[in-house]
Amino acid sequence: MTNDNLKMEWPIAWSAVWVGALAALAVALIFGLAGIALGAHKVGVSLTNARELGLGALFFSVCGAFFSFVVGAWITSKLAGYRQAEPAIIHGGVVWLVTVPMLLILAALGAGTYFGGWYSGLAGTPTWVGSRPVDPNAAAIVSANALGAAAALLIGLVGSVIGGWMGSGEPMSPWHRRVEQSPSARRAAN
Question: Which end of the chain is more exposed for a tag (fewer CB within 10 A), N or C?
Answer without folding.
Answer: C
